[in-house]
Specification:
This protein has five helices and seven strands; from the N terminus they run αββββαβαβαβα. By secondary structure, it is an alpha/beta fold. The strands form three sheets. The chain has a three-stranded parallel sheet with strand order 5-6-7. Strands 1-2 form a two-stranded antiparallel ribbon. A two-stranded antiparallel ribbon has the order 3-4. Helix 3 links the parallel strand 5 and strand 6.
Length: 180
């Protein structure tokens, strides 16, 4: 959804400018998967990544194979869009709606799909400050913090300092993820 819902979503030109500054690492958040999809015949809507989608024209829920193909296609297209816009390939993936725990197939398929394309999935909890442990990193998970309109610059700095086991000015965590 890059460039849509202005000014909420940045444009490709703005993302390119951020990347070129050297101050920002751009990472993945799905191609078109930051939506909710129908989950049953009654019209219930649930997050794209963690829902076996209801197919109304066929009056059924998609199979595990269809689910896997849909999600893998979206995650792959997200990476592809970075590359065709001249941006570095993303290595981290932020789960939309923080939806990562509810694997619809119950098989670990969602986690496997994400880690087949990305070094780690970024997990968050609203209004929480989290630190990524070595065990979490080994499992392909890293913590992320929500930054919403109500978070002041002072509150953001306080969160970053409290979450960092390193001196923030010297830390470059995305450049050396194998050392986490």
């Amino acid at each position: 959804f890059v460039g849509t819902h202005a000014p909420y979503y940045l444009t490709w030109a703005e993302l390119t400018e951020l990347s070129a500054s050297g101050r920002w690492d751009l990472e993945a958040h799905t191609h078109l998967g930051h939506v909710k999809v129908p989950s049953d015949a009654n019209g219930a809507m649930e997050p794209f990544l963690t829902t076996m989608q209801y197919l109304p024209d066929q009056q059924r829920v998609e199979t595990q194979e269809e689910y896997g193909a849909r999600v893998l296609g979206d995650l792959s297209e997200c990476k592809h869009q970075f590359l065709i816009h001249g941006l570095p390939e993303p290595s981290l993936f932020a789960f939309p709606f923080s939806a990562h725990d509810d694997d619809p197939a119950g098989t670990g398929m969602l986690k496997n799909l994400v880690t087949s394309l990305y070094s780690a999935g970024m997990l968050d909890q609203a209004d929480a400050t989290s630190v990524t442990t070595s065990d979490q990193r080994a499992q392909g998970n890293i913590a992320r913090m929500d930054v919403t309109a109500d978070v002041t610059p002072t509150a953001l700095v306080d969160r970053l300092i409290s979450a960092s086991p390193l001196e923030p000015a010297a830390a470059q965590p995305l450049r050396d993820i194998d050392q986490w």
